[in-house]
Amino acid sequence: MKILKLNAISPAADEIFKDCEYSDAVQDPDGILLRSFSMHDYPLGENLLAVARAGAGVNNIPVDRCTERGIVVFNTPGANANAVKELVLCELFLGGRKIVDGANWAQTLKGREDISKLVEKGKGKFVGQELAGKKLGVIGLGAIGAMVANAAIHLGMNVVGYDPFISVKSAWMIDRRVSFTAELAEIFRTCDFITVHVPLTPDTKGMFNKTTLAACKDGVVIVNNSRGDLVVSADMAEAVQSGKVSRYITDFPDDTLLGRENILCVPHLGASTPEAEDNCAYMAAGQLVDYLQNGNIANSVNYPAVAMPRSSVSRVCVHHKNIKEILSKILAIVSSQGINVANMQDQSKGEYAYLILDLDEAPSPASIDLIRSLPGVIRVRQL
Ligand code: MLT
Fold it and tell me: Which domain holds residue 376?
């Protein structure tokens, strides 16, 4: 197996790839492992089977192009959640208290004789607010949002979550003291602090804009560690300038946001801890190898989760369109060869589907070609 890495990746992946050709110089790879490298203008080679993102967001990957070509895109939900949660908590504190401004000001006192007097005289400019008793809105209750919501409850905040797509797993994790709203507008209208944990999609792009910011409570603190484009920076800058938003803290600096009072830009440090980097690399590498070797899919953003233990002589994996009769046509080709299907799983995700067939004998190359030629079949692998 040939695995190309497009970013520096934690050595935690090395052990999993020990039998693979794995480097940043691999040609014609079967799999790609990356962090934030933008693949939008990157050629998708003929043999490329999968792309694994060591992280949660996949907006740097041309997911639709990959899906059409039968290239599975993996991410690692939850693997860096604790690191991001800790940064969000830090930013909530920084949003409430003028620690950064105060600490920067304290540095200007170096060399003065009367430092303690100056500190007591000057500190009034840096008074802040406590988190306890304040209302926090958490937009998006996936792995990170759920952890942030729970931690904020322990800080004494009143927490309200919004997530129309919440998974059963997240719902189970969430502290029963967290309340839920079905109206995003309620978060904007009622919260003192808002933190956002949703992927960047055409639906979420610019969700913080002139209109939604105007609907916010006066003096709201907004924290964004998800993606910069969730926020229209010019609108945010204006809202901060007017005092509507008392502070905006983001992990995604841009030219509009930098150099402004009450906007704190962190250089995309959410997942930058050795623990998170190890977890993400290990999880992404494990998913990639299991897919390349066994055809199993876990945590893909474009194909459904399908996994079976290997139990028979031959495994055939088919990426196909989710259209009627396609499954029966594939099975008819296999049974016309007199081959027993030992186990099978077929799952769909939107317009696309994925099938694993475990067979008691290996089908002939001609029958694999026949499956490949069926309308709606995108890719066929025999393992
Ligand atoms: C993520 O999407 O989880 C982060 O952007 C990961 C990273 O910092 O590489």
Answer: 306-383
Do 175 and 256 lie in a common domain?
yes
Please check whether residues 258 and 141 belong to one and the same domain: yes
Instruction: Give 315-336 pLDDT, tens digit per residue.
Output: 999 999 999 999 999 999 999 9
pTM: 0.90
Is-contact 354 308, C-beta < 8 A?
no
62 domain-assigned = yes
Over residues 116-175, the pLDDT tens digits come to 999 999 999 999 999 999 999 999 999 999 999 999 999 999 999 999 999 999 999 999
Q: Please give the number of the atom of ligand 1 that sits closest to the Cα of 57.
A: 2
Cα 345 to middle of ligand 1, angstroms: 32
Residue 114 in any domain: the answer is no
Residue 103 within any structural domain of the chain: no
Between helix 99-107 and helix 81-96 the angle, nearest 10°, is 70
How far is ligand 1, taken at its centre, from the CA of residue 126, in Å?
32
**CA-based angle 243:248:251, to the nearest 5?**
165
The reply to whether ligand 1 has any atom less than 6 angstroms from the CB of 36 is yes
To the nearest 10°, report the CA torsion of 44, 48, 52, 57: 30
Q: Do 172 and 66 lie in a common domain?
A: no
Let me know whether 338 and 381 are in one domain. yes
CA within 13 Å, CB half, 289: 16
Same domain for 58 and 90, yes or no, is: no
Ligand 1 pocket, residue 56 CB under 6 Å: yes
